[in-house]
Amino acid sequence: MNVAQGVHPAGRLEFATETTRSRLSRQRKSGRAIRLAPGLYALDATLPPEKVAYQHRFAIAAHLWPGAVLCDRTGLSGGEPVDGWLFLCHPEPGRRADLAVPGLTFSVRIGPGQLPGDMAMPSGLFLSGRARALVENVEARGRPRQGKPARQAGIAVVEDQLDEQARDGGAGRVRALLQQLDVISGHFSERSVEVVRSRLAALVGTRPDAAFKSAKFAARLEGQPYDEHRLQLLGRLVDYLHTVPPVPRPALGGAQRWQWLPFFESYFSNFIEGTQFGVDEARRIAIDGEVPAARPQDAHDVAATYRIASDPELAAAVPVSSADLLDLLVDRHATLMAAREDKRPGQFKEQQNYAGGYAFVAPEMVLGTLRRGFEAMSSIIDPFQRAVAIMLLLTEVHPFDDGNGRIARLFANAELSTAGQIRIVIPTVFRNNYLAGLVGVSNGAGNGQTLHSVLDFAQRWTAAADWRSYEAADAELKAGNAYMDSAIAEASGVRLRLRS
Questions:
Q1: How many domains, the chain?
Q2: What's the CA gap between 83 and 147, in Å, rounded?
Q3: Which terminus of the chain, N or C, has fewer Cβ atoms within 10 Å?
Q4: Is the pLDDT of residue 4 over 90?
Q5: What is the pLDDT averaged over residues 124-132?
């Protein structure tokens, strides 16, 4: 019996019958057919057996259990296998034993067929609807045998899923789930239905008298939801930093040695964010108080950044608690963005913000993620490593409408200043390297090694530069390619030069 037709790298699926068994056996011996399971073959496949089985997974399931529902943990995964298992339910399964094929095992149980809210899948199968998937995963039905994963995800995962539904769809999504639950409730255990119903009700204002398994869900009910993915990124960075020996770089030589560092730090911090002036004009703005008539807001950005970076007290102020972090962020942003009322100075964002399609932390999760993120980095003692961690936290959260990069760099440098360490300057030519370090963490490329390396180089470059006078610093920056556009520099093979 042919279930799939046509030429495909996964071949065509065929279940053996009395009349085809011998032929299929011969084709297997000749290399034309792959035996996936007793009586189950794929003809003319060019892919490895595991990929062949995966490509045909719905057709195999539909042949053995027509109209079955992809349920339990598979229902939460969108129909994808979980730990190499595909879980199904069927009102009257003709076969109840598990079926193992290369790389995948099918497991069926007796359960309701298609219900309202279930979604159609290929080959006449269905996927548990949102409300149904939540109910199905509340409690396990006995202990799974050795070597077989649990079919149900458990209450903690259900609560995590509810947190995601509330985050993505708001109160409207929650009410829709309650309506779906009412329609299908008669097909499931009263306890499982009530567990889901009580938590949905809590999301729209009626909190149950129950302890919650999910920290994310509990935080949402307390009005402090957080972005777990961002905290995981930060946690991996923190773990990595604990493996790196500290390399202290004290700011020796007296105040004269570093006199012009705050100006150039402020100049570059604004330039790489698009607030671009010639360095001489920026000097007149920041030092002499000159305000160009055509660009008063841009001029304020440069002057305000310099005001914070050059004030010993402001430049070295660091938060000592999560509540202090929020207060200090509001204060610094209010100063930095004072000339831009449209950017809501001193107010956390209310709209989602992006960079190149990458979404930062959702507005409702800003406070919770900042609080928990600050607590997650509390075990780091080394000032430079704390600077790296706070840089990542503030960049990933992006707590304000604008000014987030400058805020992150100011807070990172404050960790260094308060410990008497050399601050970090990111010159224009190094912009792409700096952003690549941050993007690498965002994309899960390592645990932050690149970001740490980039900031370490930037600090070493800052330590080597001569900041005693404007003229000396300017000449050295020109010689070291610091002012060069990063894209042009990258295309032409020019790099930031570290003075020996």
A1: 2
A2: 11
A3: C
A4: no
A5: 96
